[in-house]
Specification:
The complex is a heterodimer of chains A (546) and B (107).
Chain A lengths: L5 H4 L4 H40 L19 E3 L5 E13 L7 H11 L5 H8 L7 E7 L1 H10 L4 E10 L7 H4 L1 E2 L5 E3 H5 L1 H10 L2 E3 L4 H18 L3 E8 L4 E8 L12 H4 L8 E2 L5 H10 L9 E2 L4 E3 L2 E3 L8 E2 L1 H6 L3 H11 L1 H10 L24 H8 L5 E2 L1 H8 L7 E3 L14 E3 L3 H17 L13 E11 L3 E15 L6 E10 L5 H4 L1 H11 L15
Parallel strand pairs in A: 1-7
Antiparallel strand pairs in A: 1-2, 2-3, 2-4, 5-6, 8-9, 8-20, 10-15, 11-14, 12-13, 16-17, 18-19, 19-20
Chain B lengths: L2 H61 L2 H12 L12 H7 L11
Classes of the chains: A alpha+beta (546), B mainly alpha (107).
Chain lengths: 546, 107
């Protein structure tokens, strides 16, 4: 068999030649296509050679990422670490790979004595589950201990753990998170969005607190609260010019690293979370309002020797002032009768307006996640107006009181307290309440209250403290005001010749006779002796602090 | 030049290019994978170092906490809060300070 006939191949006919001529353009197209493919291949080859020889092609676009954390570190105003996120581990088990559940549980129990052995055996024996979680928040050391046991089926997963290196210090301010780092209280909750954003960016969140001052205030408050048998206590120290809180202390204390072990009562923030009738620490505002509204003058003298009867309700002073009394005497000797008279001259409307402008009728704006709203009902009669004049009928937080006292350091303007460290050139929002003249006048009365009035125990040689004591009887549900239970406080500013700082100390549920001048004022003096050098203030040598 | 020879040469060059392409791509891919693994390793090291650093910072903060420093000062130096050693008269302070530094001409 011949595959091709001779005539077919070697002797083309005319029709075949014509066909070839017709196919020529198609062949040209194929050639162009081939050239095109060749050009593309050449390009690809060139790029491949370039990639092969020009070093790491991934080096350019990939950057070394900053180690991001789910929550940023929190530091004090000087950069001292207050809260951080550390690597921790979850202890896991794969039941199908565990050889002997009882022995494994026993070995783990030796490392973690509080681990429920029976429950662990049960979980390790549950072959229906692929993975079980046995324990969370293991430290690096605990992980190493378990690792050394060489237990089959036991493993680890990395997670994050929130740690507070200062322990109990500033625990109420910092707050805490749950095991999944969800914020539950304090700054952790109040500044949650900022903390998360800063964590992603690898930055820190800087608070206005100063740990040295915080420690001094907490230590002194702790000692005083124990000595006075108080149920709770609070301390505030503000830079009044900027509103920055340098220290916020609550008592009783708890360790933020073990917040679950403390009760709700202990974990409660007393600075912005508790409201109390403030008592006589309100009186300076009553005097300032009266001067501002010109319903009195610095030269006026009052006869305060007799109790004051208002619609059948008698107001009297603990130690009545004999003879004529000036405004200075009303504050220095804490006269309820004098403050009530001034309040009545003002009237309810004006009194309310000033209290609102001082920020005493709204919750403070501290970044603590929760600020308790004050109990500030509208006054309904002369008796209410008079009572409000010396601190009854309005319950506010120590934070709000400290905010109001900033007027004495800002020539009559109030500055809201904050926990965020401000830049030196940051603009501070001020709200004018009193004129500088009125403020200066009242400031001199507050100094008198410390020099020779009820606040003598707050005096610190060389520091010129000016302030007012407060002793408010506690309200009992059935018995009315109970004179055996007090809310004892001191609120003041220093140094009096050029006030810059506000300090408030308050102890709740102190015993009968434990007046603010006796239990709160000494805390102020002891604290200021300790912290004055930290604030750049000079003390004069005097008696030892204790 | 003979067309068939030209075509063969073309095929040979194309084959060479394809081979070079394949080798080049393989090399690029393996280099990239190796680099990627290296970068991952470095990343892990950085993360571990960062975690260690964070733990060390926390430990330093704990060791430098005012409560611990105060306890150490009391225990080892006998300095107590509010003691005479903490608040000194100016004269006593001057005695404890080093003598004044002599003033230089350019100061």
């Amino acid at each position: 068999m011949k595959p091709l006939g001779a005539g077919t191949v070697f002797a083309p006919r005319e029709s075949a030649i014509e066909a070839l001529a017709e196919a020529a353009p198609a062949r040209n197209r194929v050639r162009f296509l081939a050239l095109g493919i060749f050009a593309v291949l050449l390009l690809l080859a060139g790029r491949a050679v370039q990639l092969a020889l020009s070093g790491d092609p991934l080096a350019e676009p990939r950057r070394v990422a900053i180690a991001a954390t789910p929550r940023a570190d929190i530091v004090d105003r000087n950069g001292v670490l207050l809260a951080t996120t550390l690597r921790a581990y979850v202890l896991t088990a794969t039941p199908s790979r565990v050889w002997n559940a009882a022995e494994t549980a026993a070995a783990l129990h030796r490392v973690f004595p509080d681990l429920d052995r029976a429950a662990t055996v049960r979980r390790l024996s549950d072959r229906s589950r692929q993975l079980v979680y046995l324990r969370r928040s293991l430290s690096e050391g605990e992980r190493a201990q378990v690792h050394e046991l060489g237990l089959a089926g036991i493993g680890f997963e990395a997670e994050n753990r929130r740690v507070y290196p200062q322990g109990a210090m500033a625990a109420h301010v910092l707050g805490f998170t749950d095991i999944d780092l969800n914020p539950l209280a304090g700054v952790e909750r109040g500044l949650d969005a900022q903390i998360r954003a800063a964590g992603e960016a690898g930055r820190t969140v800087r608070l206005s607190l100063d740990v040295r001052i915080q420690y001094a205030l907490e230590t002194e408050l702790d000692a005083a609260a124990r000595a006075a048998g108080a149920s709770s206590a609070a301390g505030v120290l503000l830079d009044a010019r900027t509103g920055e809180a340098l220290a916020l202390a609550s008592w009783p204390r708890f360790n933020a690293n073990d917040a679950g072990a403390a009760s709700d009562t202990v974990r409660r923030d007393r600075v912005a979370g508790d409201v109390h009738e403030l008592g006589s620490t309100i009186k300076p505002f009553t005097v300032a309002m009266a001067l501002q509204e010109q319903v009195t003058s610095s030269g006026e003298l009052f006869d305060l020797s007799q109790p004051f009867d208002i619609d059948g309700h008698v107001i009297e002073d603990h130690q009545p002032i004999r003879g004529l009394a000036s405004l200075r005497d009303i504050l220095a000797r804490s006269s309820n009768v004098g403050a009530a008279r001034l309040a009545l001259r003002l009237g309810a409307a004006r009194q309310r307006t000033y209290l609102e402008r001082l920020g005493l009728t709204q919750p403070a704006r501290l970044e603590l996640g929760y600020n308790e709203a004050p109990l500030a009902p509208r006054t309904r009669g002369r008796r209410d107006v008079a009572g409000l004049g010396f601190g009854y009928g309005l319950a506010a937080t120590p934070a709000a009181l400290a905010g109001a006292y900033t007027v004495f350091a800002n020539q009559g303007a109030v500055v809201a307290p904050t926990l965020i460290a401000r830049a030196p050139d940051a603009e501070v929002e001020r709200r004018q309440v009193f004129t500088p003249d009125v403020t200066r006048q009242v400031l001199s009365y507050l100094r008198a209250a410390v020099v020779d009035g009820t606040g003598r125990a707050a005096d610190v040689s060389g520091l010129a403290v000016a302030g007012k004591t407060g002793t408010a009887e506690k309200w009992g549900a059935q018995s009315g005001y109970d004179d055996s239970r007090n809310f004892s406080s001191f609120a003041g500013v220093f140094p009096a010749h050029d006030p810059r700082y506000v300090i408030v100390v308050a102890l709740d549920d102190t015993r009968e006779g434990a007046a603010g001048g006796a239990v709160a004022a000494p805390v102020v003096a002891r604290t200021l002796r300790r912290i004055a050098p930290m604030l750049g203030l000079r003390l004069e040598p005097g008696p030892a602090a204790r | 030049m003979d067309k068939a020879l030209l075509r063969r040469g073309f095929y040979a060059v194309a084959a060479l290019i394809i081979a070079a392409l394949a080798v080049g791509l393989y090399k690029a891919k393996t280099d990239a994978a190796r680099t990627d693994a290296h970068v991952r390793r470095l990343q892990q090291q950085i993360e571990q170092s960062e975690a260690d650093l964070r733990a060390l910072r926390a430990e330093i903060a704990e060791l430098e906490s005012p409560a611990r420093i105060e306890a150490l000062a009391e225990d080892r130096l006998g300095v107590t809060v509010g003691s005479e050693s903490a608040v000194l008269p100016e004269a006593a302070l001057a005695r404890r300070l080093p003598p004044p530094r002599p003033q230089r001409r350019d100061e």
